[in-house]
Amino acid sequence: SGHHGGHHVGSTPKDGLRSMRAICEFTGYSERVVRELVRDKAFPAIIIGGKWESSRELIETWRQGFIGGR
Predict the structure, then answer these.
(1) What is the DSSP code (8-state) at residue 55?
(2) Less CB within 10 Å around the terminal CB: N or C of the chain?
(3) Strand 46-48, strand 16-17: pairing
(4) What is the value of pTM for the model shown?
(5) pLDDT in tens, the chain (70 residues)
């Protein structure tokens, strides 16, 4: 049955951003801004085991909600 590693339980999605640098590069924000957004604006990034993680899909959804919610 054509399974090739299709189970991604507990792993980051393929659009995952697995470091603060990756998040900064994707968003164009500085690390300081990202930290403020996480704290103040419910930006979708978390620290797991000392590493920042997020995903492009979550960030796009957040941006749309943020822009649409004004």
Answers:
(1) E
(2) N
(3) unpaired
(4) 0.74
(5) 555 554 445 554 578 999 999 999 999 999 999 999 999 999 999 999 999 999 999 999 999 997 776 5
